[in-house]
Automatic annotation (TrEMBL):
Protein name per its UniProtKB record: ABC transporter permease subunit
Topological relation to the membrane, as annotated: Multi-pass membrane protein
Species of provenance: Halomonas koreensis
Keywords: Membrane, Transmembrane, Transmembrane helix, Transport
The organism's taxonomic lineage, starting at the top: Bacteria, Pseudomonadati, Pseudomonadota, Gammaproteobacteria, Oceanospirillales
Similarity comment: Belongs to the binding-protein-dependent transport system permease family.
Pfam families found in the cross-reference section: BPD_transp_1
Amino acid sequence: MRDAAPDMPLRRRLRQGRDRLATALITAGGIGVIAAVMAIGVFLAVEVLPLFWGGGPGGPEVDLETLWLPQSYPGLEAPAHRWQPTLPDSDPGPRFGMAPLAWGTLEAAAWSLLIAVPLALGAAAHSALFMSRRLRTRLKPTLELMEALPGVVIGFVAGLVLAPWLERQLALAATLVLLLPPGLLLAGGLRGALPGGLRRRLPLGWAALWLLPWVGLVAVLAAWLAPSLEAAWFGGDLRGWIETTLGLDYAGRNAVIVGMAMGFAVMPSIYALAEDALSGVPASLAEGAQALGATRWQTLWRVVLPAASPGVLSAVMIGAGRAVGETMIVLMASGNTALMTANPLDGLRSLAASIAIELPEAAPGGLHYRLLLLAALLLFVFTFLVNTLAEVVRSRLRRRYRRLGGAP
């Protein structure tokens, strides 16, 4: 006992030393990450600043008007936006309008969020509030693992499988989109009309499973009706009707294909964050609302969603940040045509895809090289602002939970 007593202060000092070392390493790692991010931003800014000091000898001058406003080009009757950095020798010179690239980036992100946000938030609400605990413990990790799928794999499937199938089966896809929402509403209505014994065999917490055969039946019905509807409404050629009647060109790889593929890619992250936010709402709020006579839908829409709105908004913004910065999916599924049109059936080209394609061929220090770094700086600033705003919203969510008496 006398020998063990002097060892206690030594052990305490060793334990405190290990704690200080761990704290120092964690702090250094955090500072290193911040320094690396700031260094990237400073590098891009330093490389981009010479763009606005005037062009080099014999090179075209670049200013904000040249980059973002329509310009007059030989052979074109009206000013237009063009991104054509490499042209034949017979052409008067390259065209560096960045507006089509920014438009393509935002268009791809908008279509992906339009597809991903409703599906992800609907799945998160059902998983957090209505799904059986046993099914949730198995289904949620599976959905979250989808986030690990590489973008190049999703882009490969979208470009070589989804795009050709949609081009051949455009009427079937349109019919399926038309029938699926009312089909799901009909399934809910039929379940509500069933006798009590049969209704108990189809519990709401297991709807994710017993709805699968119904969705398959709706798909079969869509496949059966599609040829008849195409013949009756569109003269047997939906694609030709779109081109002749609506005046919209149909590209095999277009914004809708990109939106579907990128929506699939960003959906798991939006789902995971939104589900955590909805699950973190104190159960006493929902129980109190239902005790006062609110239905499940009223409880979700007027109580749970407002309480979790900062976390849900944070999930959507993080999904938007990934959609804007996605490279391989846009590169493989968009056709890489720098068009600035509102037609969702046209191709597009994003800032990230242009950097991936053209940067290896751009001469370091040249105008084309610096314009690509300007595109990288725009992506960096947008992603940084989105992530910063998401963190601010998340901290607000934690404060709201503390005021409500729940766990942060």
